[in-house]
């Protein structure tokens, strides 16, 4: 059972397809002839399609014996913004997956996000941010959000996300952490520190996303004033911890200009 997250064209009729599978994690397969309109496997090898494959191994690749389409998320294909965002979400899923190591929760998270993106009228900023933050949590980067990571206080009106260290800090502890960092490395340019102020609404949303099951992680709302902050914080947090960005994210943002 696999989601097609990437494709590379090979010759006139073939593709190398990257799947994220329930059973084996990341998997590359050769789609012989799948670009042909006559191919019975053409539909299952399209981006964003979730399908069941029967495969055989030969040399370095798996080859498709037969396949059956389960979900194509058709609504993504009628809206360029949604398609671009779906490509970014699939890139995150692929980047967070490991060959030979199944991660059903990550795949279910991605499938739920693609379904919501395709079939529901949701704010794309909230969907994107929630997916980014939930993905960070599911892949081992969940921050400590219960109270200040230094003093333990829970004053939700004055909290900052310490992106580098995966915790929240109250204002006084943030100032203390800044001073300690400067004292420890007086010649530092400050890039080892990144604090983002969180409103109580944004912090509550992050706590919800972190703890919610993958089939409910989008079941929240935010005031308009908090949406931009939530989206920015979630993106910054994920990209810092996976240590790179994506060309699909740059393309998605270019559509919003």
Task: Explain the overall architecture.
With 257 residues, the chain is α+β, with helices and mostly antiparallel strands. It contains 7 helices and 9 strands. The chain has a 5-stranded mixed β-barrel with strand order 1-2-3-5-4. β1 and β2 (14-21) form a beta hairpin. The model has no long low-confidence stretch (mean pLDDT 93).
Strand proportion, as a percent range, falls in 15-25%
Shape: elongated
Order of strands, main sheet, comes to 1-2-3-5-4
Give helix and strand order, one letter per element, not per position.
EEEEEHHHEEEHEHHH
What value does the Rg take, in angstroms?
A: 21 Å
Which structural class do the helices and strands define? alpha+beta
Q: Helix count? A: 7
* End-to-end C-alpha gap: 37 Å
Unreliable spans: none
Largest sheet: 5 strands, mixed, barrel
Distinctive features:
257 residues, alpha+beta, five-stranded mixed β-barrel, 7 helices, 41% helix, elongated
SSE blueprint:
Layout: E1 2-10, E2 14-21, E3 25-31, E4 50-58, E5 61-71, H1 80-96, H2 104-119, H3 124-141, E6 144-148, E7 159-162, E8 167-170, H4 171-184, E9 195-198, H5 200-211, H6 224-242, H7 247-256
Parallel strand pairs: 3-5, 6-8
Antiparallel strand pairs: 1-2, 1-4, 2-3, 4-5, 7-8, 7-9
Helix pairs in contact: 1-2, 1-3, 1-7, 2-3, 3-6, 5-6
Short précis:
This protein has 257 residues and is of the alpha+beta class. It has seven helices and nine strands, in the order βββββαααβββαβααα. The strands form two sheets. It has a five-stranded mixed beta barrel with strand order 1-2-3-5-4. Strands 6-8-7-9 form a four-stranded mixed beta sheet.
């Amino acid at each position: 059972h696999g989601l097609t997250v990437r494709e590379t064209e090979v010759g006139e009729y073939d593709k190398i397809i990257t799947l994220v599978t329930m059973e084996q994690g990341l998997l590359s397969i050769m789609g012989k002839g799948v670009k042909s309109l006559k191919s019975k496997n053409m539909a299952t090898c399209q981006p964003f399609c979730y399908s069941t494959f029967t495969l055989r191994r030969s040399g370095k690749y798996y080859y498709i014996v037969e396949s059956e389409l389960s979900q194509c998320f058709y609504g993504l294909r009628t809206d360029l913004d949604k398609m671009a965002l779906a490509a970014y979400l699939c890139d995150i899923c692929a980047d967070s997956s490991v060959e030979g190591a199944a991660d059903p929760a990550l795949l279910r998270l991605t499938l739920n996000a693609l379904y919501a993106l395709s079939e529901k009228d949701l704010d794309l900023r909230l969907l994107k941010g929630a997916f980014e933050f939930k993905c960070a949590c599911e892949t081992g980067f969940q921050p400590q959000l219960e109270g200040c990571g230094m003093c333990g206080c829970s004053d939700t009106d004055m909290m900052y996300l310490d992106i580098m260290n995966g915790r929240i800090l109250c204002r006084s502890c943030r100032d203390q952490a800044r001073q300690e960092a400067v004292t420890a490395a007086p010649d530092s340019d400050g890039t080892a520190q990144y604090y983002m102020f969180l409103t109580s609404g944004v912090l509550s949303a992050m706590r919800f996303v972190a703890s919610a099951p993958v089939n409910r992680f989008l079941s929240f709302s935010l005031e308009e004033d908090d949406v931009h902050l939530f989206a920015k914080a979630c993106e910054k947090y994920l990209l810092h911890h996976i240590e790179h960005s994506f060309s699909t994210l740059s393309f998605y943002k270019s559509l919003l200009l």
